[in-house]
TrEMBL record:
The keyword Ribonucleoprotein does not apply. Pfam families: SAF (PF08666). This is SAF domain-containing protein. SMART domains: SAF. It comes from Paenibacillus vini.
Length: 306
C-alpha cells in the first residue's frame, strides 16, 4: 500500500513536471511570437507616421496657379480665353517656363495636341508673326494640289522645269480655303511678285507648279524659297501686265485638262462600282490617282497659247 502511494506520488510529480515544462515551452513560444508581432506593429506604425509627416509637409507647401486646357486642343489651334482653366500645383513641381497669366497664353498657337489639365508652358506654344500691312488673299487654280489636301493644311508651292530643275516658290503657306481645285492663301508683296514671275516662267518654258504638304507643320522649320525671279520675265510683265493673267489662265486650263483626262479614263463599270461603294460606306475608297507612279500628282506641261 505504501509502495502504491509512493508510485502514485511519483507519477503525479512527473505529470506536474510535464505540465510545467509544456507550459514553459508554450509560454516561451507565445512570448517570442508576441515580441515579433509587437516589433512589426511598431515598425509599421513608424512607417505610417513618416508617410503622414510627408503628406502633411506636402500639404503645407506653397501652391502656384497655372493654366491648362479645359478640353482637348488639336495642334495648330489658336488659344482663346474660353479654352483655359485654372490649376493649382505645388511650387516645386512646375517647370521653369510655366505661364502664369492667361494673357501670356491667349492668342498663341498649340504646337502639339494637348490633353485637358496639361499645364501650359512656353515650349508647348508658339506665337504667330504679326500680320504685315502688305498681306493679301490670293486665289490660285493653277497649282497641282495633293489629293489629301484640306483647309488649314500647310504646304510649300514649288515650280519644276522640264530640265529637272525644281525650286521652292512659296514656303510654309497655310491653306485658308479650298474649293473645286482653287486654293486661297495669304501672300505678301514680294511673294506676289515672285509668283507672277513663276506663272509666266511656267507658261513660257513648259514648267509645272505644284504643292507639297508638311508632315508636322508645328514642328518642321519653314523652308527657304529658292526660286530666282527671272529679270527678263519681270521686264515682260512690266511691258505687258496682261501676260500674267493669260499665263495663269493657261495653267488653270492645263490643270483642268489633266483632271478631265483622268476622269475620262474611268470606265462606266468602274464609275458604277464606285457609286455603289459610296452608298454603303461612310467614306469613299482611296482615289485611283494615289496608285499612280506620281503619287496622285499628275505632271503637266504647257506652252504659250496659240
Amino acid at each position: 500500500m505504501f509502495r502504491m502511494r509512493r508510485k502514485t506520488k511519483h507519477l503525479i510529480y512527473a505529470g506536474l513536471a510535464g505540465v510545467i515544462a509544456t507550459g514553459l515551452i508554450f509560454g516561451g513560444f507565445m512570448f517570442v511570437k508576441t515580441s515579433k508581432m509587437t516589433e512589426a506593429r511598431i515598425e509599421m506604425q513608424g512607417r505610417l507616421e513618416a508617410e503622414i509627416r510627408i503628406l502633411q509637409e506636402e500639404a503645407g507647401r506653397s501652391k502656384v496657379q497655372g493654366w491648362a486646357p479645359a478640353r482637348e486642343l488639336p495642334a495648330g489651334h489658336v488659344i482663346s480665353m474660353e479654352d483655359l482653366v485654372s490649376v493649382e500645383l505645388p511650387e516645386g513641381s512646375v517647370p521653369s517656363d510655366w505661364l502664369k497669366t492667361r494673357e501670356q497664353i491667349a492668342g498663341k498657337t498649340v504646337k502639339l495636341s494637348l490633353k485637358p489639365n496639361t499645364l501650359l508652358t512656353g515650349t508647348l506654344l508658339y506665337e504667330e508673326e504679326p500680320t504685315p500691312s502688305d498681306l493679301r488673299f490670293r486665289e490660285m487654280g493653277f497649282i497641282q494640289l495633293p489629293g489629301a489636301l484640306s483647309e488649314q493644311d500647310v504646304i510649300d508651292v514649288r515650280i519644276q522645269f522640264p530640265t529637272g530643275q525644281d525650286y521652292i516658290l512659296l514656303a510654309k503657306k497655310k491653306v485658308n480655303s479650298l474649293a473645286s481645285g482653287t486654293v486661297t492663301m495669304t501672300l505678301n508683296e514680294s511673294e506676289i511678285l515672285s509668283l507672277s514671275s513663276a506663272i509666266v516662267d511656267a507658261y513660257l518654258h513648259k514648267a509645272s507648279i505644284y504643292a507639297l504638304l508638311y508632315v508636322e507643320p508645328s514642328l518642321q522649320a519653314k523652308a527657304i524659297p529658292t526660286y530666282p525671279a527671272n529679270e527678263a520675265v519681270l521686264k515682260l510683265i512690266k511691258q505687258d501686265p496682261n501676260i500674267v493673267g493669260r499665263a495663269e489662265h493657261a495653267l488653270s486650263n492645263s490643270a483642268r485638262t489633266g483632271l478631265e483626262a483622268d476622269l475620262g479614263g474611268v470606265s462606266a463599270q468602274s464609275a458604277a462600282e464606285y457609286a455603289g461603294y459610296q452608298a454603303t460606306q461612310a467614306s469613299p475608297p482611296p482615289s485611283s490617282r494615289a496608285d499612280s507612279p506620281t503619287g496622285g500628282q499628275e505632271q503637266f506641261v504647257m506652252g504659250p497659247a496659240e
